[in-house]
Each structure stands twice: as structure tokens, then as C-alpha cells.
Amino acid sequence: MSTAILPDTLRAGPDPMLPRLATVRRRRRDTSQVWTLDIEDSVVSNEPFVPGQFNMLGVFGVGEVPISLSGDPAVQDQLVHTIRAVGPVSKALVRLKPGEVLGLRGPFGTGWPVSDAVGRDVIVIAGGLGLAPLRPALYRLLAQRERYRSIQLLYGTRSPDDILFRRELLAWRRRHDIAVEITVDHAPADWTGHVGVVTTLVSRSSFDPAQAIAFVCGPEIMMRFAIAALGQAGLADEAIYLSMERNMQCAVGVCGHCQFGPSLVCRDGPVYRHDRVRSFLGVKEL
Amino acid sequence: MKIEGLERIISEHRFFAGLDDGYCRLVCGCAKNVRFEAGQYLFHEGQPASQFYLLRHGRVALEISAPGRGTMQFQTLREGEIVGVSWLIPPYRWTYDAKALEPVRAIAMDATCLQQKCEADHRFGYEMMRRFVPVLVERLHATQLQILDVYGNPA
Description:
Chain B: This is Cyclic nucleotide-binding domain-containing protein. Chain A is α/β, with parallel strands linked by helices. Chain A has helices at about 10, 90-95, 130-145, 165-175, 220-230, 265-270, 275; strands at about 20-30, 35-40, 55-60, 65-70, 80-85, 100-110, 120-125, 150-155, 180-185, 185-190, 195, 210-215, 240-245, 260, 265, 270-275. Chain A has 2 domains: about 5-110, Elongation Factor Tu (Ef-tu), domain 3 (Beta Barrel), CATH 2.40.30.10; about 115-280, Rossmann fold (3-Layer(aba) Sandwich). Chain A is built from 7 helices and 16 strands. Chain B has 4 helices and 8 strands, in the order ααββββββββαα. Chain B is globular.
């Protein structure tokens, strides 16, 4: 692709539409439909990615999809992506074996404002696969734990079998400096954990709304309910950040497929401050 | 002495926070302390909903059984929450089972007693409804999300 149609800011560097080669180093299954790939980029960046950003991952001859980075941003020689196999590209991605090659562009988009959380209570609300884009932010927060007040992870998913990063969540639960609450929408009778939608955990959480910041990621309907619960708990819209999902294709703000109101999710998002997108959430045409 | 103890417990319970002292005494007249062992059922589907419970300690699972699917938990409740809203609406029968997941201490409220007091004093009745409606709305919202199965496959 010619770089002529790219915005000036993107013309200076390498062509952002040209995939680099990357190699799968490890593949593991998280749930029946979700897999995590550890990938080695052929070009190791000196700059760590920002928690919340995404890459475009492609299987040659099949296609390309946006996938959030789900690993530790401090580990620069390995990119981690957690993928739900639902379409032709994502199914082809999770079939890749260690040593096989894929195409990679990125990282793209805005991230979680971890530096804005310094000195504040941090509430992280994740629904389903939404935990994956939040995990890098959690790594970053925990790496400098002393800089923040309380940290609370409220995670909801469909059933006990759908819990992502189970061992890591249990390890975090054993720590005394992060509160981890896990809930599932429904469970068999032998489940001893919590059952109920993730938004109900908000009213049971303890935080100072004047000093708190919230990061929310999950299905859009779940995020709307979570934001309502946070508002009811006294959190201002300016203190709530959410990650939007739309049909991102070029990832550089050119094609317009991911338009969301006046913004493009690939360029201006995926992480938005709530007050800046409030009027567009829930609009059916968007 | 027993009544004073219950009054303190009820006035400190999240559900009745800020309740007028006189109303608190009315509520106490319908209340008693109860305990359940882990695995014991508070009530079963189809039984008359003659009581509801203010949880003081421990967790309770709400369960429903469906042919071919076995028993499913659809909600767990814990300290500070209430178990049971079926006593509010005819036919006053439970529509699910409630099981103690661990040792549970609760206040059992006699529903008929409370209904009669609500009928006799509509201001008191309004105060009770003002506390129950948010619980009902929260559970309605939760049910909406569960029905939508938002974590299922994207369309």
C-alpha cells in the first residue's frame, strides 16, 4: 500500500500497513474457546507497549484481526495475545503451532492511564475476555504497588469453566495488596465461589469515590451497567475509563471501519475516558 | 434484653440502615435469630414464602433445577444482603431453592407479620417498599445481563 493516503504523522516511519514477521513461541489453552499465544516479533522494540493497546495479527492467506496485548509490558522480547477462536482468522491464529510464522502490525491505539492512577484507589472491572486487555495494566500497577492506594479487581465471566488466567488470579488472591473478586453468571451446584453479574460487585467494594479511578473492559452492555454502578457509588465520569471494540481493519485511522461517533476506535481508542464517549454509548446506529 | 439485641442487629444491618427507631421496633416484632449449617436449605421452590432473611454472616446460594441440566446456581448472597422477595407478591411461594454454602447466621422476618404492619401503617409500608424496590431493580438488571448471556459468542 502506498503511504500517500496516510496522515502526515504516520508517513515518517515504516509503513504501518506492512506486517512484520513474528513467530509463535508458545501456545496454551485457557478455556474451551480461548487460547494465549506467546509471540516473538522479528523487530524488538525499545519502547514497551502501553497497557490497553492492540496489535493486528494476521495469518497469511486468511486475514488479519485486532487482538489486545495481554502480557507484561515489562517483558519486551515477547508479545502475549489472548484470543477467542470464533471467526476464520482467530481460529487460524489459535491453530498456529510453536515455530510457525504470522504477520504482525502494531502496537496501536491508546492505553489505560496507569500514571493517572498514582495515589488513588484503582478499581479494575473485567468481563469475560475483557480481562485480557486489562492484565498488562494490572502487571504495571502491581510492579509499582506502593504508588497506589487500594487495588481491586472485579472479574465476571460466564461460568467457572470460562475463568481466564485462573492460576494467576489465585496467586493474586493470595496477595494482601490487591483484592480479587471473581463471579460467574451461573454455576453448577458444587461451585463454592460467587454467582451473580460482575456489576453487583461494585456496590460491595470499598473505595473513596473522590480518590478513585476505574478501568472497565468487557462486552459493551456489561460496561454500560458497570459504569452505572460506578456512578451510583459516586465515581465521576472523568474517573472512568473503558475500552471500546469496533470493526478495526487498517488500525491507523484511514479506512474508517471503526468509526464511533466522531472518533475512530483504532486511532482515538480503544481506551476512552467515559465522559468523552458517554453520549455515543448505547446509540444503536453506532 | 433479647429485643434490644435484635434492635441493634437490625438497625446496623445494611438493608435497614437509617431506619427510624419506632419502625425498627415494628420490624423487630416480626424478627428472630436463625442459624443454618453449611449445605442446609433455607427454603425450597414451591414452599410458601412465609419468611425472608437478613444475612448477618455466611453465604447463601440461590439454585434452580431444570430437567437435563441439573441444579444451577444463579446467584449467591452474603452478609448485608437479603434472601427472598417472593413474600411480597402473590402467590407468596418460593420460585427457587436457597442453600447455605457455609454456616449462616441470619434474621428471619415473619412475612405475614410484616405485611399486616405495612397494611396498618402505610407510611411504614412505604418505608419497607422503598428499601425493597432497589433490591428488586438490582436483581432485574442482573437478570437482564444473565439472559443476554453477554459473554457468549459475539454475533
